[in-house]
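S.,

As promised, the glutamine run. Input:
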Amino acid sequence: MLLKDALTSAIHRLTDSKVGSPRMNAEVLLMFTLDTDRAFLYAHPERELATAEYARYEQAITQRASGVPSQYITGHQEFWGMDFIVSPAVLIPRPETEHLIETVLEIRTSDRGRQTSDPVLRIVDVGTGSGCIALALAKELPSAEIHATDISPDALEIAEANAARHQLERQITFHDTDLLQGLEGQGFDFVVSNPPYVGEAEEDQVQLEVRKFEPRNAVFAGPTGLEVIERLIPQAEATLKPQGWLVMEISGTIAQGVERLLAGWKDVRITNDLQGIPRVARARKA
Ligand code: GLN
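Predicted complex:
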């Protein structure tokens, strides 16, 4: 089978199975199968695929056609310019979550102007999953002390593997716990989190691929979507130092509810993502 014919037939299969962006998916999975880049695919359409290569490609396309996200097939996703290992034990990092990193860096820059001394910054990422938030912050703030929690031991294993791959394991301490349990009173400067925030009532608006293949407890919080944030806010209060910041990813659906739960905090602000959807909530502990 020639490379170009394998690609064409894969595009047809993905189109028939109603997979979005069929060409992009077919190419990504062929690059993965042949361990090559897109330029190679375009430069060598006449390359003959070995039987084993074609069998592997067929297997990947069959999985993708059944709805498995390509990131769970290739085992990788890029976030903040870094490559992350992912498995079905963790949420696939999303580009909109990069706004959370930007928000922390922005707050950091403006707070710094007001400070005379520069003590070690301490940050905890709640529900770290793949570790994408904790690792991106560790990379941007090399002198910061980063902690990351998750209730799922399988997720922590992935996050730790990612920290090791990026040589950031010495900067990050992982905690196998529910939200911030056990970290109260530690006076952190930042609590950051991309918590589960989708409500079960919105379930049919969530892409089937997400519902079927991504960890349910990473996406859904309970009936309204606010259930985890409702528990997180008081725990964050107990974990932050005075004037410390809570920065969370949210959605438009829960934005008002989040604002209500943050009554009593200072400098509450919700900022939108590139699509104009409320995406990051920040608040300062009084
Ligand atoms: N912190 C991880 C991320 O942002 C996982 C979040 C989650 O599982 N809800 O991708």
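The chain has a mean pLDDT of 96. Residues 91, 93, 97, 127-130, 132-133, 194-196, 218 surround glutamine (CB under 6 Å).

- D.
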